[in-house]
Design brief:
mainly alpha; 3 helices; 126 residues
Length: 126
């Protein structure tokens, strides 16, 4: 590769980077212009700011009421979900533990037959 070709490649790469930087800069300037236009539209007078603050207070009050309602419903909903979601697994666990307990219990003693009692003849009660 000759020096002239290297300079050409370097120049092409530099032009590409400059175009990219300029396009990004222009995009950022457009965003800034849009934001400034929005701010300029706002009413910065005392009554305008008071109205805006009242709107924010209203939204905050609504959010507080909604959060309070949801917080009050939460324990009942949690219990309902626990009761419906865990009933079958708990029943299965109880059955499994009962089966395991039966296996671990010592066997019941077998009744021992007394040979003397068997040797006595059975009498009929009259």
């Amino acid at each position: 590769m000759t020096i002239q070709e290297r300079f050409g490649a370097l120049e092409a790469e530099a032009k590409g980077r400059l175009r990219k930087v300029l396009s990004n800069g222009n995009a950022r300037l457009m965003e800034l212009d849009e934001r400034l236009a929005r701010i300029a539209k706002d009413d910065w007078t005392v009554p305008g700011l008071r109205r805006h603050i009242d709107q924010l207070r209203s939204r905050a009050g609504n959010m507080r009421a909604e959060a309070t309602r949801k917080a009050q419903e939460l324990p009942g909903e949690a219990v309902t979900r626990l009761a419906t979601g865990t009933r079958a697994p708990i029943q299965n666990l109880a059955k499994g533990l009962a089966d395991l307990a039966k296996r671990l219990e010592p066997p019941r003693p077998k009744p021992v037959k007394d040979p003397e009692v068997e040797a006595q003849p059975k009498t009929k009660a009259s």
